Amino acid sequence: IEDRTKTEILDLLNDRTLNFTQMINTSSKNLLDKILSFLDITKIQSGILRLDFMTFDIVELLDAVSQNQTSNMTRQNVKFLIETNGIDTKIEGDIKQIARVIDNIISNAAKFVHRDGVIKVSLEETILGIDSLAENRKENAMQISIYNDGPNILEAEMDRIFESFEQADGDIAR
Q1: Nearest CA among 60, 69, 120, 117 for reference residue 90
Q2: How many CB atoms lie within 10 A of CB 119?
Q3: What is the pLDDT of residues 131-169, one digit of tens each?
Q4: Among candidates 32, 118, 103, which has minimal Cα distance to 61?
C-alpha cells in the first residue's frame, strides 16, 4: 500500500474515531441526565425539588436539545423544524427541568418518526388562567407543541405517558 493510501486510511480512521468519541460523549451525557431525572423523581415525591428560574431563549434550548438526537435523526433522514410564529421566544423557567422534558419528548418523537419524516416544534403565545383562593389572574404563557409524522398515542394512553417509567404501548415498533 502506498504511503498516500495509508495516510488516507489513518485520516478516515481518525474521523471515525472522532465520530464514535462524540457519540459516546453524547450518550454518556444522556445517561447521566436520565440518572439525574430519576433522582429528581425522588425529590419531587418528597417535596424537596428546588426550581431555579431564569430567563432564556427557548429556540436556543430547542436547538441544543435537538443536537442530542442528531444521530437518530440523521440515520432516519429526519428534518427538525421550529416554528416560532413570530412570537418573542424568551421565557422564564427552570432551564434544566424544561430541557429534560423537551429532550424526552423529542427523543420519543425521533424514535417513532417515519424515515424521511419531520419533527416539528411549534411555539404559540397563550394566556394562562390562574385560579386560586388568593388570586384570580391571567398571565402570558407559551405553548410548546411537538409533532412528528409517526404513529399517534391513543387517547386512552395519554394520562399514563406522564407517569414515571411508563410507555404508551409496548407493541409500537421503534
Answers
A1: 60
A2: 25
A3: 655 566 567 789 999 999 888 778 888 777 666 555 555
A4: 103
